[in-house]
Design goal:
single chain, 251 residues, alpha/beta, TIM Barrel, eight-stranded parallel β-barrel, 12 strands, globular
Length: 251
Amino acid sequence: MLTKRIIPCLDIKDGRTVKGINFIGLRDAGDPVELADRYSKEGADELVFLDITATKERRKTLVELVEKVAKKINIPFTVGGGISSVEDVNILLRAGADKVSINSSAVRNPQLINDLANKFGSQCIVLAVDAKLINGEWKVFLVGGREETERKLFEWVKEAVERGVGEILFTSMDHDGTKNGFANEALRQISEEVNVPVIASGGAGKMKHFTDTFKVGRADAALAASVFHYKEIEIKELKKELKKQGIKVRN
């Protein structure tokens, strides 16, 4: 069995790390470079950096900030926000990213997935999906959760994997920031539908939520933000607890 991964997430707005609830009510959570350095030393398996207003503001990801973070860490580093072309990915990989996360641009232009996978390899391309349960059906949202689409979650992840995506980062907007646990039923279904790793995002509040998402949701990795930023959960302690529960994690 592959080891499960613990991934802190830096949501970036105006050069600062922020966190909200259900994608709104953002508050400051610290300096991204300092947080990245801390997580790298504390035993995080990977780090995700999402420039959450890049698409809305129609600009590119903050490349200088990506470079600063990359210099501080020695763990795999995924960057997303405002990516819409092969050249955008080239720039971010040169700046120190190991993988890129695409979201709105992939829904609007699915061929982008094929182009990026062909150029850089599937292992480099993460599909971030923000979805919400609407009348009993999971619908995909764009632009940091501001724009509802007709895309259905499970159909979209299957198509994206067929086009070349190497990993799925699924965030339940209903669970985001609530600290009530991950959307494990939806995660389990995604894991059963695709043959690439699935990252759970949205809802981490206590250690049990991580155990549940690995055991019940069948997630390959769990991503969280505020519980790590504000030291409500320490990564080393979390890994000790997961091992106690029979879940294989890296030291």
